[in-house]
TrEMBL record:
Ranges annotated as spanning the membrane: 20-38, 116-133, 153-173, 185-206, 212-235, 273-294, 314-335, 367-389, 395-416
Family indicated by similarity: Belongs to the SecY/SEC61-alpha family.
Name the record gives this protein: Protein translocase subunit SecY
Subcellular location: Cell membrane; Membrane
UniProt xrefs under Gene3D superfamilies: SecY subunit domain
Described purpose of this protein according to its UniProt entry: The central subunit of the protein translocation channel SecYEG. Consists of two halves formed by TMs 1-5 and 6-10. These two domains form a lateral gate at the front which open onto the bilayer between TMs 2 and 7, and are clamped together by SecE at the back. The channel is closed by both a pore ring composed of hydrophobic SecY resides and a short helix (helix 2A) on the extracellular side of the membrane which forms a plug. The plug probably moves laterally to allow the channel to open. The ring and the pore may move independently.
Species this chain originates from: Sneathiella marina
InterPro entries named among the record's database cross-references: SecY, SecY/SEC61-alpha, SecY_CS, SecY_dom_sf
Classification of source organism: Bacteria, Pseudomonadati, Pseudomonadota, Alphaproteobacteria, Sneathiellales
Principal subcellular localization: membrane
HAMAP family: SecY
Length: 441
């Protein structure tokens, strides 16, 4: 991709530069918000309490929040309630006939579904915000000092309003980045949070080596593994199966049209980075509040929190099951073999050796299912192996497979969109030159 980009074309692409500057400004605003604390919280005591529980599910949540949860800021919930609401709405479009009908109504139906998703985001953010406020009141040091300066209903109401407002603002900011910037806004917000904390995670890992908690060989192996995982992710994300499509020749008068061959590219990982994010979100949603009250809550709650900790068999099984499920579910949402087969039939295209129509749809579904199996296995491998290393050597979560997968995938998607903007700008320049040449003639 980089070889096809020229700095000369980039300097002339005024619209692209405006989009990039807007994206950068929006991400800076997001990072500033991750340092604005919630009113009524003692940051010193909170940091001490959080450091004792950062090795579990809270540490994973803090990765996606860009460190905002550990500092308990206005963006502590990050964009996770919106992702959870999106999951619920996509499931509803497959289960509910009314929601499925809305999806088929085109732009108008999509606006209604987005509106319902926003309502669901506010509802989920309010629930999680109340759980966090109640959990904060239960946080205290062994000396008895509480993390909340003035606990009570007043503190809970302020915390819920603050966290819900932060989530809604991030939801709006992500939509603005998608519309007026470059890349997918929601993915870029998660990407910015992970990348911003990578330097401190690297320093922390090196500090573990300096103090002797990790050997130099283990650190070297981890760095080599990270580079290898990045290369593996790039290879698998760009892998695709090309289904050959033929168009018959058509005789119109004395001219012959068609007869060319084309291909239908089917990506190995059609769902992209969505399955790990969705699976993590579903695992984080019910256990976030439980983790805050671990040790002081009922026995069954403490047992559940321990069982879904990183490196535990139950967590691994649920994580893999969630990734596999969302791989198939999201692929079915994105790619419809029936519609593709109908479009090919309308335009006279066919797969060699396969009859048009239903047979073509079954063949595409067969090929896509096999690809999705391999893609789900690849995502599960990338996300689970580093989790084992985290559990064994307490490596920061920022070097986990999910974090690297998000960073690499979002980077590739953003670079591809920048390249498409550059190509569109070059075509616009060619069209303007041809118009000017025509006027001169």
């Amino acid at each position: 991709m980089a070889s096809t980009m020229s700095f000369g074309a980039f300097s002339k692409a005024t619209e692209l530069k405006k989009r990039l500057w807007f994206t950068l400004f929006a991400l800076v605003v997001y990072r500033i918000g991750t340092y604005i604390p919630i009113p009524g919280v003692d940051p010193t005591i909170l940091a001490d309490v959080f450091s004792q529980n950062s090795g579990g599910i809270l540490g994973m949540f803090d990765v996606f929040a860009g460190g905002a949860l550990g500092r308990m800021t206005i963006f502590a919930l990050n964009i996770m309630p919106y992702i959870s609401a999106s999951i619920i709405m996509q499931l509803m479009t497959s289960i509910s006939p009314q929601m499925a009908q809305l999806k088929k109504e085109g732009e108008q139906g999509r606006k209604k579904i987005n509106q319902y998703t926003r309502y669901g985001t506010v509802f989920l953010a309010a629930l999680q915000g109340y759980g966090i406020s109640a959990g904060l009141e239960g946080m205290s040091l062994s000396t008895g000092q509480s993390a909340v300066i003035d606990p009570g209903m007043h503190f809970r109401i302020i915390t819920v309003i603050t966290l819900v407002s932060g989530t809604v603002f991030l939801m709006w900011l992500g939509e603005q980045i998608t519309a007026r910037g470059v890349g997918n806004g929601i993915s870029l917000i998660i990407f910015a949070g992970i990348v911003a904390e990578l330097p401190s995670a690297l320093v922390g890992t090196l500090e573990l080596g300096r103090t002797g908690a990790l050997s130099s060989i283990v650190i070297l192996v981890l760095l080599i593994m990270s580079v290898a995982v990045i290369a593996f992710i790039v290879f698998m994300e760009r892998a695709q199966r090309r289904v050959l499509i033929q168009y018959p020749k058509r005789q119109r008068g004395n001219k012959t049209y068609g007869g060319q061959n084309s291909h239908l590219p089917l990506k190995l990982n059609t769902a992209g980075v969505i399955p790990p994010i969705f699976a993590s979100s579903l695992l984080l949603m019910p256990t976030t509040v439980a983790s805050f009250s671990a040790g002081s809550g009922p026995e069954w709650l403490n047992t559940l929190t321990a069982m879904v900790g990183h490196g535990q068999p139950l967590y691994m099984m649920l994580y893999i099951a969630g990734i596999v499920f969302f791989c198939f579910f999201y692929t079915a949402v994105v790619f419809n073999p029936d519609d593709t087969a109908d479009n090919l039939k309308k335009h006279g295209g066919f797969v060699p050796g396969i009859r048009p129509g239903k047979r073509t749809s079954e063949y595409l579904d067969y090929v896509l299912t096999r690809l999705t199996v391999v893609g789900a296995a690849y995502l599960s491998l990338v996300c689970i192996l580093p989790e084992i290393l985290v559990a064994q050597w307490a490596v920061p979560f920022y070097f986990g497979g999910t974090s690297l997968l998000i960073v690499v995938s979002v980077t590739m998607d953003t670079v591809a969109q920048i390249q498409s903007h550059l190509v569109a700008h070059q075509y616009e320049g060619l069209v303007k030159k041809s118009k000017l040449g025509g006027r001169r003639k």
